[in-house]
Amino acid sequence: MQKNSKRNSKLRFCDIESNSVDTEQEKNESQNNFVELLPLEVTLKIFSQLDIQSLCRASLTCRSWNSTIKDSDSLWKPHCLTLRTVCQREIDNDLQNGYSWRDILLRNYQKSKVKHEWLSGRYSNICSLISLPEKIMCPMDADTWGEIFEAELER
Protein backbone atom coordinates (compact mmCIF):
# COMPACT_ATOMS: atom_id res chain seq x y z
CA MET A 1 0.00 0.00 0.00
CA GLN A 2 2.88 2.33 0.70
CA LYS A 3 4.24 1.57 -2.75
CA ASN A 4 0.99 2.79 -4.26
CA SER A 5 1.00 5.98 -2.20
CA LYS A 6 4.61 6.68 -3.17
CA ARG A 7 3.74 5.93 -6.76
CA ASN A 8 0.70 8.21 -6.61
CA SER A 9 2.69 10.99 -5.00
CA LYS A 10 5.25 10.71 -7.82
CA LEU A 11 2.50 10.94 -10.40
CA ARG A 12 1.02 13.98 -8.74
CA PHE A 13 4.41 15.61 -8.51
CA CYS A 14 5.08 14.94 -12.19
CA ASP A 15 1.65 16.27 -13.09
CA ILE A 16 2.25 19.45 -11.14
CA GLU A 17 5.73 19.78 -12.58
CA SER A 18 4.56 19.29 -16.16
CA ASN A 19 1.69 21.75 -15.62
CA SER A 20 4.09 24.39 -14.36
CA VAL A 21 6.34 23.77 -17.36
CA ASP A 22 3.36 24.05 -19.72
CA THR A 23 2.31 27.30 -18.10
CA GLU A 24 5.85 28.64 -18.42
CA GLN A 25 6.00 27.60 -22.10
CA GLU A 26 2.66 29.25 -22.80
CA LYS A 27 3.89 32.40 -21.09
CA ASN A 28 7.06 32.42 -23.19
CA GLU A 29 5.10 31.74 -26.39
CA SER A 30 2.72 34.56 -25.54
CA GLN A 31 5.64 36.92 -24.96
CA ASN A 32 7.12 35.96 -28.35
CA ASN A 33 3.82 36.31 -30.22
CA PHE A 34 3.82 39.75 -31.84
CA VAL A 35 0.12 39.38 -32.75
CA GLU A 36 -0.76 39.52 -29.07
CA LEU A 37 1.76 42.26 -28.26
CA LEU A 38 1.35 44.76 -31.10
CA PRO A 39 -1.66 46.90 -31.92
CA LEU A 40 -3.97 45.30 -34.48
CA GLU A 41 -3.17 47.92 -37.14
CA VAL A 42 0.55 47.10 -36.95
CA THR A 43 -0.10 43.35 -37.02
CA LEU A 44 -2.32 43.73 -40.09
CA LYS A 45 0.31 45.86 -41.80
CA ILE A 46 2.88 43.09 -41.25
CA PHE A 47 0.55 40.38 -42.53
CA SER A 48 -0.45 42.52 -45.52
CA GLN A 49 3.08 42.19 -46.87
CA LEU A 50 2.62 38.43 -47.38
CA ASP A 51 1.62 36.72 -50.61
CA ILE A 52 -1.37 34.37 -50.62
CA GLN A 53 0.58 31.20 -49.87
CA SER A 54 2.56 32.81 -47.04
CA LEU A 55 -0.61 34.28 -45.58
CA CYS A 56 -2.24 30.85 -45.57
CA ARG A 57 0.83 29.29 -43.97
CA ALA A 58 0.98 32.02 -41.34
CA SER A 59 -2.64 31.30 -40.44
CA LEU A 60 -1.57 27.75 -39.56
CA THR A 61 1.05 28.95 -37.06
CA CYS A 62 -1.14 29.30 -33.99
CA ARG A 63 -4.69 30.15 -32.94
CA SER A 64 -4.10 33.87 -32.45
CA TRP A 65 -2.50 34.24 -35.88
CA ASN A 66 -5.27 32.17 -37.45
CA SER A 67 -8.08 34.22 -35.97
CA THR A 68 -6.36 37.52 -36.83
CA ILE A 69 -5.72 36.49 -40.43
CA LYS A 70 -9.01 34.67 -40.98
CA ASP A 71 -11.17 37.49 -39.63
CA SER A 72 -9.46 40.36 -41.45
CA ASP A 73 -10.99 41.13 -44.84
CA SER A 74 -8.37 43.83 -45.40
CA LEU A 75 -5.74 41.09 -45.79
CA TRP A 76 -7.73 39.12 -48.39
CA LYS A 77 -9.22 41.96 -50.44
CA PRO A 78 -6.04 42.97 -52.36
CA HIS A 79 -5.46 39.35 -53.39
CA CYS A 80 -9.07 39.07 -54.58
CA LEU A 81 -8.76 42.26 -56.58
CA THR A 82 -5.70 40.81 -58.30
CA LEU A 83 -7.71 37.71 -59.25
CA ARG A 84 -10.51 39.96 -60.46
CA THR A 85 -8.53 40.76 -63.61
CA VAL A 86 -9.12 37.13 -64.67
CA CYS A 87 -12.35 36.26 -62.81
CA GLN A 88 -14.26 39.55 -62.74
CA ARG A 89 -17.71 38.06 -63.23
CA GLU A 90 -17.18 35.34 -60.60
CA ILE A 91 -15.80 37.71 -57.97
CA ASP A 92 -18.49 40.34 -58.58
CA ASN A 93 -21.19 37.65 -58.24
CA ASP A 94 -19.67 36.41 -54.98
CA LEU A 95 -19.55 39.99 -53.63
CA GLN A 96 -23.23 40.46 -54.49
CA ASN A 97 -24.03 37.20 -52.72
CA GLY A 98 -22.38 38.46 -49.52
CA TYR A 99 -19.28 36.29 -49.36
CA SER A 100 -16.31 37.58 -47.36
CA TRP A 101 -13.12 38.47 -49.24
CA ARG A 102 -11.45 35.38 -47.80
CA ASP A 103 -14.25 33.10 -48.98
CA ILE A 104 -14.22 34.74 -52.41
CA LEU A 105 -10.51 34.07 -52.69
CA LEU A 106 -10.93 30.45 -51.61
CA ARG A 107 -13.77 29.95 -54.10
CA ASN A 108 -11.95 31.49 -57.07
CA TYR A 109 -8.20 31.07 -56.59
CA GLN A 110 -7.75 27.75 -58.41
CA LYS A 111 -10.27 28.72 -61.07
CA SER A 112 -8.37 31.96 -61.76
CA LYS A 113 -5.11 30.04 -62.21
CA VAL A 114 -6.66 27.62 -64.71
CA LYS A 115 -8.57 30.37 -66.51
CA HIS A 116 -5.42 32.50 -66.77
CA GLU A 117 -3.51 29.57 -68.28
CA TRP A 118 -6.25 29.02 -70.86
CA LEU A 119 -6.58 32.69 -71.74
CA SER A 120 -2.83 33.12 -72.07
CA GLY A 121 -2.76 30.32 -74.66
CA ARG A 122 -0.98 27.65 -72.66
CA TYR A 123 -3.52 25.01 -73.64
CA SER A 124 -4.13 26.18 -77.24
CA ASN A 125 -2.31 23.20 -78.73
CA ILE A 126 -4.19 20.57 -76.71
CA CYS A 127 -5.49 17.97 -79.18
CA SER A 128 -7.43 15.69 -76.85
CA LEU A 129 -8.75 15.31 -73.33
CA ILE A 130 -5.81 13.03 -72.51
CA SER A 131 -3.37 15.89 -73.17
CA LEU A 132 -4.86 18.07 -70.43
CA PRO A 133 -2.85 18.24 -67.20
CA GLU A 134 -5.26 16.54 -64.82
CA LYS A 135 -4.10 17.83 -61.46
CA ILE A 136 -4.42 21.55 -62.22
CA MET A 137 -7.89 21.43 -63.75
CA CYS A 138 -10.89 22.43 -61.67
CA PRO A 139 -14.64 22.58 -62.24
CA MET A 140 -15.79 25.70 -64.08
CA ASP A 141 -19.24 26.95 -65.00
CA ALA A 142 -20.57 27.31 -68.54
CA ASP A 143 -19.97 31.08 -68.65
CA THR A 144 -16.28 30.60 -67.79
CA TRP A 145 -15.91 27.96 -70.51
CA GLY A 146 -17.68 30.35 -72.89
CA GLU A 147 -15.06 33.05 -72.17
CA ILE A 148 -12.27 30.54 -72.75
CA PHE A 149 -13.76 29.30 -76.04
CA GLU A 150 -14.26 32.88 -77.26
CA ALA A 151 -10.59 33.60 -76.55
CA GLU A 152 -9.58 30.44 -78.40
CA LEU A 153 -11.69 31.42 -81.43
CA GLU A 154 -10.02 34.85 -81.53
CA ARG A 155 -6.56 33.25 -81.74
Automatic annotation (TrEMBL):
Main localization of the protein described in the UniProt heading: cytoplasm
Domain F-box: residue ranges: 32-79
Functional pathway: Protein modification; protein ubiquitination
SUPFAM superfamilies membership: F-box domain
GO biological process, any: protein ubiquitination
Keyword Cytoplasm: yes
GO annotations of cellular component type: cytoplasm; SCF ubiquitin ligase complex
Alphabetical UniProt keywords: Cytoplasm, Ubl conjugation pathway
InterPro entries: F-box-like_dom_sf, F-box_dom
Statement: the UniProt record of this protein carries the keyword Isomerase: no
Subcellular location: Cytoplasm
Gene3D superfamilies hit by this protein: 1.20.1280.50
Coiled coil: none
Quaternary structure note: Part of the SCF (SKP1-CUL1-F-box) E3 ubiquitin-protein ligase complex SCF(FBXO9) composed of CUL1, SKP1, RBX1 and FBXO9. Interacts with TTI1 and TELO2; when TTI1 and TELO2 are phosphorylated by CK2.
Function, in words: Substrate recognition component of a SCF (SKP1-CUL1-F-box protein) E3 ubiquitin-protein ligase complex which mediates the ubiquitination and subsequent proteasomal degradation of target proteins and plays a role in several biological processes such as cell cycle, cell proliferation, or maintenance of chromosome stability. Ubiquitinates mTORC1-bound TTI1 and TELO2 when they are phosphorylated by CK2 following growth factor deprivation, leading to their degradation. In contrast, does not mediate ubiquitination of TTI1 and TELO2 when they are part of the mTORC2 complex.
Protein name, entry field: F-box only protein
Organism annotation: Chinchilla lanigera (Long-tailed chinchilla)
